[in-house]
């Protein structure tokens, strides 16, 4: 999402997906990508692509400490992203749970999955599409990830798995997978269940092994049965490529794997779609062999250093509270300390005038009263950009400080909201949240009307 605006680049720092590929690959790689082979067209080139995909699976599985023998092949598939990877992992958990329940003569009509309320929307899609109840652990002030204790309390005999996030979308924080594993081991012993864990490492899967190698979150923990990761985030590849790795063959039910031979040879397949381009797989393999462990570690360390520069710059303004953690995805999530004069949505709106796309959003239940701004540090986000962003945020704060307070602007905004409320034909009493939203809407209109009289070059 890079475009030219008044001779200035609009810099999208809202997501961790890659828009650039550094450095440029040699010409022969472009020749391979230009073919855009389809997975369903078997031939000599596709066999090479199939080989490269399996090599990627094996490299990533070893990176996640899968318990593999010297000559044992890893179990995993390439997908179009972590959303598809999570769908496949969820289907494997559901089928294993169903098989076990059938063997025990128990009903299979009420499967559920336990997650935090901070999960990405793909988990809600999986639950709705495949008829699985989603049991969410609510958030709370200053704790914006899933609480392992509360998660284990919600587990019952119908729980197909507990999903932990290594790198929350909201604030980049790593959930405590080891604590979750230890608590779940004890509960399984007490109940006789064997509830497993899936780790959604879409963002953190290519970060933790290089920045925090001693952190136990992966297949070193016995209950972790599958892990997904996005290659188009910190795997440093264009969208869309994702991966899902299983602990061993027993964790992927064989009946979910299809074998076809009408393309000229036996081809096992376990994906939601059939035909797709191969360029992202080749790009992932290129990055893995070009950078290696040291190369990825250098990139991640650089991202973390630039994250610290940005965080410290925001702290020096004295206006923001940092809600992200230093140990996690290299991003900075922050909120205003004082909301009397302006809010995070106004800062986000005005930053666009300086060429920055910085999202503002509210936290999920039960922390929806907290509003946050988020800046994701990618490979192409330099120290210079971090310092420039801090300067532009200070300019925005100064500009907003010159405006009347949205809560004390001669009572105009509040009185208008009250007047609108009185004119409404709806008889029910509005909640505090509804009233605040109405005030914010009127305030935004006031700011936008003022912008129209301000020249910008």
From TrEMBL:
Keywords assigned: Calmodulin-binding, Decarboxylase, Lyase, Pyridoxal phosphate
Cofactors demanded by this protein: pyridoxal 5'-phosphate
GO molecular function per UniProt: calmodulin binding; glutamate decarboxylase activity; pyridoxal phosphate binding
SUPFAM superfamilies cross-referenced by the UniProt entry: PLP-dependent transferases
Taxonomic superkingdom: Eukaryota
Residue stretches spanning the membrane: none
Major enzyme class: lyase
Chemical reaction(s) catalysed: L-glutamate + H(+) = 4-aminobutanoate + CO2
Keyword Lyase set for record: yes
EC number: 4.1.1.15
Matching InterPro entries: Glutamate_decarboxylase, PyrdxlP-dep_de-COase, PyrdxlP-dep_Trfase, PyrdxlP-dep_Trfase_major
Gene Ontology cellular-component terms listed: cytosol
GO BP annotations, alphabetical order: L-glutamate catabolic process
Annotated positions of the N6-(pyridoxal phosphate)lysine modification: 233
Annotated family: Belongs to the group II decarboxylase family.
Protein name, UniProt field: Glutamate decarboxylase
Organism, as annotated: Rubus argutus
Top-level taxonomy: Eukaryota, Viridiplantae, Streptophyta, Embryophyta, Tracheophyta
